[in-house]
Amino acid sequence: MEPSPNLHSTRLFALLAVIGAASILYAGTGTTAQPADPPSASQSRGQVPPAPPPTPAWNRGNGPPLNLTGYTLAWQDEFDSRRILAGDASGNTLWYAGAQGGPYGAANVGVAPRSDVYLVSDGVLTIRAFANVDARGQRTGSWYSGHLQTVNSKGEGFAVQEGYFEARMKFPSSMGAWPAFWLKHRTKWLDPTAMNVEVDIVEWYGGDWFGHHHSVHLGQGSARRFWSDYEKAGVDLSQDWHTHGALITRDWIVIYLDRIEIGRFPTPEEIRTPLYPQLTLSILKQPETNAVSAEAVSPMDLYVDYVRVWVPNTRR
Question: Is the pTM of this model over 0.85?
Fold first, then answer.
């Protein structure tokens, strides 16, 4: 989920199983669903309704359920109030806006905690994306959206080395949507030479309505290594609220959908460091045109009911 205008072209529907001697392990049946074709404008809602996958590799009944015995809730935002500061500011807050920079796909993101991008009402956070328009009201092809994280660009804020990170979200039912819940390491802001570390708990792409992408990244550019898994959920993930979580332990990174295990990765040594949660609404460019689908809805909203983090009672 590291910001890059061409990131989706290298990661969309990637399925790499082995790097070195470490292999991806899949929950449930032990098989891996084949990624769907990249979504195109002809798949837009209202033209071709999504068909249920014929043989899903995962469903609500075949993965081990989450067990938080021995864990304590350590951090939470129920979005009963709006506690967001600029990404380069310091202060008593829960979130920092846009510290990562951008762009995310076609969407620019700034450090300002804009009230038209980050809205909190009735216990729900809305991250809203807009298509930019010219003087004639025509879309220019670029967008503006939002990104929140619990650590600012000075390394201040909440991060934890091991624990369970969870968000309850409703994805935008639109082409072009690219929401994500993901983790980065605090060291990124304290040591400019530190290796890039990233855990994507979920990335979802409008048009691939049933798809669930999760991955682990180490390094950047040509030296980047990553483990990636793609599963088909039994439902269109944009049609209802779902919980997305990751249990980070010394040995395993376990990914959950609605508190049922959907995938896992061995924990690399580089991940054994304080991590912080992030929420992003990126805008996907179509792989075949390198442009956002004309069917993308603007404004586009990602809804978040809560974000919570549990830590083990016995801390390392």
Answer: no
